[in-house]
Amino acid sequence: MAIERTLSIIKPDATENDNVGGILQLIEKSGLRIVAMRRMHLTKAQAGGFYEVHKERPFFGELVDFMTRSPVVVSVLEGEDAVAKYREVMGATDPKKAADGTIRKLFAKDIGENSVHGSDSLENAKREIAFFFAEADLL
Ligand code: ATP
Ligand code: MG
């Protein structure tokens, strides 16, 4: 295993419900370290660009509306096997299928409003980190 970095987004449902602290606590308890973090309100262009891989999916419009409804908290997480480890800490996309103790099991409402995003590969993590953070934010 290697030290990796992955991108996390705490989504609008979680900032609206004041679950940011609870989610960050689960992240830190898992052994991942928050090495950069920012709260921001995404524009439609930013949300659409970030989720560009899903633009042909039927839920794309709904996803962009949701992600721009309220502020999000974007962060870079670092640790052993960070990409896979954070996917584990998040739990399944659909909270009904998420394991006990995962962020989505504890906080998410449904498959759309599922509280967090995490990169799904090291390659996508690099692209997603660069989407939100400059080199100088990550020293
Ligand atoms: P994310 O990319 O946000 O970490 P994921 O990798 O678990 O989530 P994806 O398949 O990449 O899931 O879907 C991206 C996001 O699109 C989901 O997290 C969810 O917010 C939304 N989404 C996925 N499937 C649906 C659906 N069937 N209906 C509504 N929204 C959906
Ligand atoms: Mg995904």
Tag the structure with descriptive keywords.
single chain; 139 residues; alpha+beta; four-stranded antiparallel sheet; 7 helices; 4 strands; globular; binds adenosine-5'-triphosphate; binds magnesium ion
Describe this structure in words.
There is one protein chain. With 139 residues, the protein is α+β, with helices and mostly antiparallel strands. Helices cover 40% and strands 20% of the residues. The chain contains 7 helices and 4 strands. A 4-stranded antiparallel sheet has the order 2-3-1-4, with helices on both faces. The chain is globular. The chain binds adenosine-5'-triphosphate and magnesium ion. The site of adenosine-5'-triphosphate has 11 residues, from helix 4 and strand 4.
User: Taking Cα atoms only, what radius of gyration do you get, to the nearest Å?
Assistant: 14 Å
Percent range of helical residues = 25-40%
Largest sheet: spatial strand order = 2-3-1-4
Number of β-strand runs: 4
Chain-averaged pLDDT:
98
Shape: globular
Largest sheet: 4 strands, antiparallel
End-to-end CA span: 22 Å
SSE string, helices as H and strands as E: EHHEHHEHHEH
Provide a count of the helices: 7
Could you give a quick summary of the protein structure above?
40% of the residues lie in helices and 20% in strands.
